[in-house]
Write a structure and sequence with these properties.
- The chain is an alpha/beta fold.
- It contains 11 helices and 9 strands.
- It has a 5-stranded parallel sheet, with helices on both faces. Strands 2-1-3-4 form a 4-stranded parallel sheet.
- Strand 3, helix 4 and strand 4 form a beta-alpha-beta unit.
- The protein is globular and about 55 Å long.
């Protein structure tokens, strides 16, 4: 069997194109599994996975949990909001406590960039990054690219624009790495204050006019404004942002071609995207959610098969 070139998934940056294609191929077969009447496979019956969420998350945590249970793994859930972390316990203490319970794999979301990599270098378990601060969110990028491939046949040669709060978005950074490795052209679009200064170094196009960006692209990935990460005001008001960068049905219908609309969720309906766009046949937002489970099953399965061989 083919195997991944990495022992952990800390970021897309560390994956090769072959790794990504292997994850997609594996996710294809798991997608068939989750659409059967019996949705479980016994693949990971002897593997224990700890989900460590030091930041609130509903969709990502549920998606991982579902993926783990579909693979028949034993699952330990740990929410830092209600744990000793509040009493000052360090990341290493927490993890060592969990590892002393003999855990094979850790899925972690943490507010500090680099936390997953830091952990992977210090623990004897496979680590999956479920989002580290404003740095990376690799499984989101994989499921986004997988959804584009499913909808358009391939990612290579496609033009993808990521719209919104690029500065605070780990989804944007992981998506840029992933799409470029698969041969797509990437553009970012948003207010000047929300486009990072270093973005040109990543080889992406930059556009400040939403209409021009949408006329250029095949796929538009609409990000939400991350107010919880913003310590200063980056634009006058949400209403103003929405008027400049919100995607409406009217804008969509005026475009010369039909584009695919994506959103990593949760959606701020009426801000970056209106309800009639989110619910239209051009949006693949619910497909992304379904594909998220299949892609996370694939990542967990491929990493676990390396553990089993050790």
């Amino acid at each position: 069997m083919d195997s991944l070139s990495v022992d952990h998934l800390t970021g897309i940056k560390h994956l090769t194109e072959n790794d990504i294609q292997l994850i997609f191929k594996t996710a294809d077969s798991f997608k068939e599994v989750i659409n059967r009447s019996i949705k479980k496979v016994p693949s990971l019956r002897d593997i224990t996975i700890a989900n460590l969420f030091f930041e609130n998350s509903t969709r990502t945590r549920l998606s991982f949990e579902l993926a783990e249970k579909r693979l028949s793994a034993d699952v330990v859930n740990f929410s830092a909001a209600s744990s000793s972390v509040k009493k000052g316990e360090t990341l290493i203490d927490t993890v060592n406590n969990i590892l002393s319970m003999k855990v094979d794999m850790v899925v972690m979301r943490h507010p500090n960039p680099g936390a997953a990599k830091f952990l992977s270098e210090r623990v004897d378990a496979s680590v999956i990054n479920a989002g580290d601060g404003t740095h990376e969110h690799p499984t989101q990028a994989l499921l986004d690219a997988f959804s584009i491939r499913e909808k358009l046949g391939e990612v290579n040669g496609k033009k993808v624009v990521i719209v919104g709060d690029i500065l605070h978005s780990r989804v944007a950074l992981s998506n840029i790495y992933c799409l470029q490795k698969l041969g797509a052209e990437v553009m970012v679009c948003g207010p000047t204050t929300l486009i990072p200064k270093y973005i040109h170094e990543l080889g992406v196009k930059v556009e400040y006019n939403l209409k021009k960006a949408l006329e250029w692209c095949d796929v538009a990935n609409m990000l939400r404004i991350q107010l919880e990460r913003q310590d200063i005001k980056y634009f006058p008001s949400l209403r103003e942002y929405s008027m400049q960068y919100g995607l409406t049905k009217k804008i969509l219908d005026q475009l010369p071609k039909k584009i695919v609309v994506m959103h990593p969720g949760p959606i701020n309906r009426g801000v970056e995207i209106t309800s009639d766009v989110a619910d239209s046949d051009q949006a693949i937002i619910l497909d992304q959610v379904e594909n998220g489970v299949a892609v996370r099953m694939a990542v967990i399965y491929l990493l676990a098969s390396k553990i089993k061989r050790q």
